[in-house]
Design brief:
single chain; mainly beta; eight-stranded mixed β-sheet
């Protein structure tokens, strides 16, 4: 008997009866095994005249006490089907075995992220998630719902459906793996057409100190970032250190900010959370994800003088300031009172036994 290349199910079996009864033909089971995303109907056949096919769906070896195949039957959960042909005057056939795998349904990305990793486990995200970014490199897609986010690493190009940014996607099927602690969802089947479009996902504000593993693949806005690099962004992925932080900015390949100058002043950056081993990362998607961070005004340097019973507090103008608030107190432990709010660069009042001041530039 000649079987297709990479046929394994008959290894270890051989029936040979020289001079004796012939062997019943092994049943053919259709469809072929593997991952199925929708319920299937299973059919069986044998070329041995008058043969009866007995089968099981619990993994046990078929006998003449097993179920008799009388026509197609429905399979809608992970099942191993075994079949064997019996006929008068024939030795029973070898056992045909086909396994069908159906994904476990999960109803949120948070639930998905809690599942075990490895390609022996398949999952179907039955609820809608929103695409916050996609890149031709490895056909990656970042998806997010109200509970969490995850990156789809489609390196084999399994998903061929076309989507737009902020489309809703429902019914993604795949398995989980980790790449240096970054959890990824690897698709096993194409996904349906978008179930919605034009959705709004608001980035969650983060400081460099509070980015955690829970932010993996999530759309975040990292506040007040000073990049420790000069020159232009490259078209290839690059790591850029952050001044005063162990967090790294990891760029995507082929973005619209490639070959543009790296900001030299503090910026707020909309990005996707990432991780490499124990180091937290974030990755901006577009040039428009960079925005200038409000500059922190310098503190006024005060000078205090006394003349003719008057105390005058004065200071030089602060770049960017349009208003100055003057606060005073006889006892700072009991609090300060607002004395003046104006664009003036000084404040005067009658001298007392003691006085404390501070000025805020706005």
């Amino acid at each position: 008997d000649v079987y297709p290349r990479d046929t394994f199910e008959h290894l270890g079996f051989h029936i040979f009866a020289p001079g004796g009864d012939p062997v019943a033909e092994t049943p053919q089971i259709s469809p072929a095994g593997g991952l199925k995303t929708d319920p299937i109907y299973v059919t069986m056949s044998t070329t041995t005249d008058g043969a009866t096919i007995y089968y099981t769906t619990d993994g046990n070896e078929p006998t003449e006490a097993s179920s008799v195949y009388q026509g197609q039957f429905l399979v809608n959960e992970t099942t191993t089907v075994k079949a064997k042909a019996f006929a008068a005057g024939y030795i029973p056939s070898a056992t045909a075995t086909v396994s069908y795998q159906f994904p476990v349904v999960v109803n949120s990305i948070a639930e998905l992220r809690a599942k075990p990793t490895g390609d022996t486990y398949a999952f179907k995200l039955a609820t809608e998630a929103i695409i916050t970014y996609q890149n031709d490199n490895r056909h990656t897609k970042y998806i997010q719902d109200s509970t969490a986010a995850i990156v789809i690493d489609d390196y084999n190009g399994i998903i061929t459906t076309t989507y737009q940014l902020y489309d809703g996607i429902t019914g993604v099927t795949g398995y989980l793996n980790k790449y240096n602690e970054l959890l990824q969802f690897v698709p096993l089947a194409n996904a349906p057409a978008a179930t919605s479009s034009g959705n709004v996902v608001t980035p969650v504000e983060r400081t460099l100190e509070n980015i955690t593993s829970d932010d993996q693949a999530k759309l975040i806005k990292v506040m007040n970032v000073t990049l420790d690099a000069t020159g232009d962004f490259t078209a290839t992925a690059q790591n850029i250190n952050i001044v005063g932080s162990s967090v790294v900015m990891r760029t995507f390949v082929n973005t619209d900010y490639a070959d543009t100058p790296i900001p030299q002043t503090p910026v707020n950056i909309i990005a996707l959370g990432g991780q490499f081993n124990q180091a937290m990362q974030f990755s901006p998607r577009f040039l428009s994800d960079f925005e200038d961070a409000p500059l922190a005004l310098e503190a006024p340097e005060l000078e205090i003088t006394e003349a003719s019973g008057q105390i005058t507090v004065s200071w030089t103008a602060i770049t960017g300031a349009t208003n100055y608030k003057v606060y005073g107190s006889d006892d700072p432990y009991t609090g300060f009172t607002l004395l003046q709010s104006s664009s003036a660069l000084s404040y005067s009042e009658t001298a007392g036994s003691k006085r404390f001041y501070y000025v805020i530039a706005e």
